[in-house]
Design brief:
388 residues; Rossmann fold
C-alpha cells in the first residue's frame, strides 16, 4: 500500500479523493458533528498544496440510486465550505449525467464536490464503466473514507484499481489503530455497548481471542442478563440471541477472557438498582449503568494497557441516561492506557463529556468498517489499495 507522502506529484495534476461527508444532521439540515469533515482536511490540504485540482467524492445517507433532494449535498455545501475553509465547485446530478466531468476547468487549481455518489446506479454495483467515467479524468485516486471501506462500491473498491492510488492520512491511522488492538501483546480490555448483538457477534468472538476482559453495557447487556435468568422486564432486547451469547461465553472460556456485565443499573423511573435486586421489580426499563458498574469499569481500565470502546452504556440521546457513557469518557480520557474509540454514538459521548480527541490514543470515525476490520475481515477498500 503506497503512502500518500511517498507519491511523486511531479506529473500529477488531477486528484480524486473519496472522503466521508456522511455527516449527522438535525431536522433543519444543520450538521451536528463535524468530525468526519475535519478529519479529511489534512489530506485535502496536503494535495491542494501541491497545486493539484481536487475532485471530492462522497456518499450521504442511503438514497435509492437516483436523485433525492433530502440526500443532496446542495443543502450542505455552504456548511462544508465554512468548516473546511475552502471554496467548493459543486457538480450537480444533472450536470454529471449530461457531461460527466467534461465541464470541469482543469487549467487552474480547483476543488470540486461531486453530488452524492450513491445517486448513481454504478456506485453500489461497483461498476467498472461508471468508475472509469470518473477516474479517466484523474491522475491519482485517494481513499480517505475508511468508514465506507467495508462496502464493495465503485468509489471504494473499483476506482482505486483503475489508476495510481493511495490511502489518505486518516485512513492510514485507522488501520494502524486497529492493528494495535489485534496484534499487540499488551493486556487489552474491550468495552462494548449499543443495542444489537447480531451486528457485533463476530467482533465479540474475535475480541475474546485478543482481550483479557470484555465489559458489555448498553441495551446489549440486557440480552446477557436475560440469558443468565435475570429479570429485565420491558427493557430493550434482541430476540433470538441465546445461541449467539452461548458462543461468546464458550469462546471466552476457551481463551481465558473474562466477560463482565453491569452490577447495577439506572431504570426509566430514574431509580438505581443492583442487578441482583431486579427480580423483585416489575414494569421497568434498564436505560443506563450506575455507580457500582462505573467503579468496576474504573478498576478494569486501571489494570489494562490497551482499551477499545465501542457503543454507549445507555440511552445516550436522553441526557437523563447519558451519565454512564459520559463518565466512561472522562475515565478513559485520564487513563494511562492506549485508548481506541470506535465511532458512532461513542464519539457523541466524548463530545457530550467535552473531552478532546487528543486525550485518547485514537478516535475512529468509522462504525461498521471499524468492527469488521476487528473481525480480521479483508475490507474491499483495503484490498483494493493493497493490490495497487
Amino acid at each position: 500500500m503506497k503512502s500518500l507522502k511517498n507519491v511523486n506529484f511531479e506529473k500529477i495534476r488531477n486528484v480524486g479523493v473519496r472522503v466521508d461527508f456522511n455527516v449527522p444532521i438535525d431536522k433543519n439540515f444543520r450538521i451536528t458533528d463535524k468530525t468526519r469533515l475535519e478529519r479529511s482536511k489534512e489530506t485535502i490540504d496536503f494535495i491542494m498544496n501541491r497545486q493539484c485540482n481536487i475532485l471530492l467524492v462522497s456518499h450521504f445517507g442511503r438514497p435509492k440510486e437516483n436523485f433525492d433532494e433530502k440526500y443532496s449535498f446542495s443543502k450542505l455545501i455552504d456548511q462544508f465550505e465554512d468548516i473546511l475553509e475552502l471554496k467548493l465547485n459543486f457538480i450537480s446530478y444533472d450536470s454529471f449525467l449530461d457531461s460527466g466531468l467534461n465541464e470541469l476547468d482543469f487549467d487552474k487549481p480547483t476543488i470540486s464536490l461531486l453530488e452524492n455518489i450513491r445517486f448513481f446506479e454504478g456506485e453500489t454495483k461497483n461498476d467498472l464503466y461508471f468508475s472509469k467515467s470518473i477516474t479517466d479524468k484523474l491522475d491519482l485516486y485517494v481513499n480517505e473514507a475508511f468508514s465506507a471501506s467495508h462496502r464493495f462500491h465503485s468509489s471504494v473498491n473499483q476506482m482505486v484499481k483503475n489508476i495510481l492510488s493511495a490511502p489518505g492520512f486518516n485512513f492510514e491511522r485507522e488501520i494502524s489503530a486497529i492493528d494495535s488492538i489485534k496484534k499487540s501483546s499488551k493486556k487489552k480490555l474491550a468495552i462494548i455497548g449499543g443495542s444489537k448483538i447480531s451486528t457485533k457477534i463476530k467482533t465479540l468472538l474475535s475480541l475474546t481471542s485478543s482481550c483479557s476482559d470484555i465489559f458489555i453495557g448498553g441495551a446489549m447487556a440486557n440480552n446477557f442478563f436475560k440469558y443468565n435468568n435475570i429479570n429485565v422486564s420491558n427493557s430493550l432486547i434482541e430476540q433470538g440471541t441465546e445461541n449467539l451469547i452461548e458462543k461468546i461465553y464458550n469462546s471466552a472460556k476457551s481463551t481465558d477472557c473474562k466477560i463482565h456485565l453491569p452490577s447495577d443499573v439506572l431504570l426509566d423511573s430514574n431509580e438505581n438498582k443492583l442487578v441482583d435486586e431486579l427480580s423483585t421489580s416489575s414494569d421497568f426499563k434498564i436505560l443506563d449503568i450506575s455507580v457500582s458498574s462505573h467503579a468496576a469499569l474504573e478498576k478494569l481500565i486501571e489494570n489494562s494497557e490497551i482499551v477499545l470502546w465501542n457503543g454507549p452504556m445507555g440511552m445516550i440521546e436522553d441526557n437523563k441516561f447519558s451519565k454512564g457513557s459520559v463518565n466512561l469518557a472522562h475515565l478513559l480520557a485520564k487513563s494511562q492506557a492506549d485508548v481506541v474509540i470506535g465511532g458512532g454514538d461513542t464519539i457523541l459521548a466524548i463530545n457530550m463529556a467535552e473531552e478532546k480527541f487528543e486525550n485518547f490514543h485514537f478516535v475512529s470515525t468509522a462504525g461498521g468498517a471499524f468492527l469488521e476490520a476487528l473481525e480480521n475481515k479483508d475490507l474491499p477498500g483495503i484490498q483494493a489499495l493493497m493490490a495497487d
